[in-house]
Design a protein that fits this description.
Keywords: Membrane, Transmembrane, Transmembrane helix. By secondary structure, the chain is α/β, with parallel strands linked by helices. The protein has three domains: 98 residues, no CATH class; 242 residues, Spore Coat Polysaccharide Biosynthesis Protein SpsA, Chain A, CATH 3.90.550; 86 residues, no CATH class. The strands form eight sheets. A five-stranded mixed beta sheet has the order 6-5-2-1-7, with no helix packed on it. A hairpin with a 4-residue loop joins β1 and β2. α2 runs parallel beside α11, α4 packs across α6 and α10 packs parallel to α11. It is globular, with a radius of gyration of 25 Å.
């Protein structure tokens, strides 16, 4: 039998296919619940909320409430349409199900974090990542990798990280194809309900977790939007507006972004439709002669960078129009952690940087920032190689004190590490890293 439930504020409707005589409790998004009589599990439910429809397989809606009068009271008649209202004093099944209504749109599953690795021939320090995922509840995450080479796929055998089918990719000009392959594949594996607070975190093959799993999980799950680590404005791309009024500007971010479910779904769909595939030619990226880093300034029409550093922000938010060449503007961006975005020549890092990356050019030039804070906390044996204007720095040696500094930093992930770096004190790097970071045992007791 199809039953229709309408919340008293008329914002939420639940259509339930069920059949008839024991108590079944249904809840609408933070606004309602209703008892149905049913001796079988409901099989399908459609949640209608402010113009959005979601139909899901819904056996989990069934609850045997026993003395239902203690919760909401049993209606005497159950016609085809009923209004419903959640009793804020309810306990037991009603309360526990209400907690599951995360996001305010529909009955949803537990938040999941999707770890999306981009790799060439391997994921460095896979033993550390295996320990990280072994420490987690399996229903809180999924992990996928796009491998460029076959040996990378072979490396994943027996690990919790699932390879996705390989697509063509090209350094700088198109790493977005494998990134969106990861998104598409991760989204296609969703079965049953999803959660609006799910997160899709892109992870480098040379990165390591900087926090225990539960801390990363809760940090990402509690944020409403997406995390973009925005470069200083001198790195942004700009062109004169065709009408002569200011500039058209594309914001440059680190490749290692974390997307909300909403943004992940939109980005995957937009890439498939061909949106902004011509970004590199449109902004004339990397086409002018290079004359040292002094040429890379805000509003100079000299644009440098890679597609993966621009495409997601540009596709999801568009370019910035009619920007003044002197800057001194700001713009609110919805679902953008750290909004508003400041458009000014002297601005430093903005947004939210989940992954530590060492860019020598910006390490000391823009005042104290999260990157510099971590660098200053490292002991001498743990200071990484500095890199250059084109490539970030890297670690091949680190001490347990340095690993502890990473654990204590503001970052969720950190790169670049070579595979199997040396531990300064001697011993096994992976074991020491797992103890200090993943199992949260302080360095002075980790041995």
């Amino acid at each position: 039998m199809l039953r229709k439930l309408v919340s008293k504020d008329e914002r939420t409707t639940i259509l339930v296919l069920a059949s008839s005589t024991n108590a079944v409790l249904l809840l609408g998004p933070f606004g309602g619940s209703m008892l149905l009589k049913g001796d079988a599990f409901p099989t399908m439910a459609t949640f209608q909320h402010e113009g959005r429809n979601d139909t899901v397989f819904a056996p989990w809606l069934y609850r045997d409430l026993g003395a239902c009068a203690d919760l909401l009271g049993c209606p005497e008649a159950l016609g085809s349409t009923h209004q419903f209202e959640f009793d804020s004093g309810a306990t037991g099944p009603a309360l526990s199900m209400t907690k599951a209504l995360w996001g305010g749109l529909m009955l949803q599953s537990k938040v999941e974090v999707y770890f999306l690795f981009l790799a060439v021939d391997k994921i460095s320090n896979l033993d550390v990542w295996s320990a990280f995922f072994d420490s987690a509840d399996s229903d809180k995450y999924r992990a996928f990798v796009h491998c460029k080479e076959k040996q990378c796929v072979q490396q994943m055998a027996g690990s919790p990280i699932v390879p996705v089918p390989t697509v063509a990719s090209y350094y700088c000009t198109d790493l977005v194809s494998p990134m969106n392959q990861l998104l598409s594949y991760a989204l296609s594996t969703d079965l049953g309900p999803t959660n609006a607070r799910d997160k899709f975190a892109f992870v480098s093959d040379s990165a390591l977790p900087a926090k225990p799993f539960e801390e990363i999980y809760h940090t990402l799950g509690e944020r409403d939007g997406s995390d973009f680590c925005v470069f200083p404005p001198g790195e942004w791309a700009d062109l004169p507006n065709p009408d002569g009024e200011g500039l058209e500007v594309a914001v440059k971010v680190h490749q290692w972004i974390t997307l909300s479910r909403h943004h992940a779904e939109r980005a995957s769909e937009m890439w498939q439709k061909g949106v902004m595939h011509n970004f590199m030619s449109y902004f004339k990226m990397n086409q002018l002669g290079w004359n040292n880093m002094l040429d890379n300034n805000f509003a100079d029409n000299r644009n440098w960078g890679c597609l993966d550093e621009f495409w997601y922000v540009t596709a999801l938010y568009g370019t910035l129009k009619k920007v003044h060449s002197e800057g001194d503007q700001s713009i609110e961006l919805p679902e953008f952690t750290g909004s508003p975005l400041r458009i000014e020549k002297t601005a430093g890092w903005q947004g939210k940087c989940d992954t530590f990356v060492i860019w020598a050019k910006y390490m000391h030039s823009l005042g104290r920032n999260e990157q510099q804070n971590l660098m200053l906390s490292l002991d001498p044996p743990s200071v990484p190689h500095g890199g250059n204007w084109a490539r970030p720095g890297w670690w091949d040696t680190i001490s347990t004190k340095g690993i502890q500094a990473i654990r204590n930093s503001d970052f969720l992930f950190v790169r670049k590490f070579i595979d199997k770096p040396a531990l300064h004190e001697g011993g096994d790097f992976a074991a020491a890293y797992a103890k200090i970071v993943i199992h949260d045992i302080p360095a002075n007791t980790a041995a």
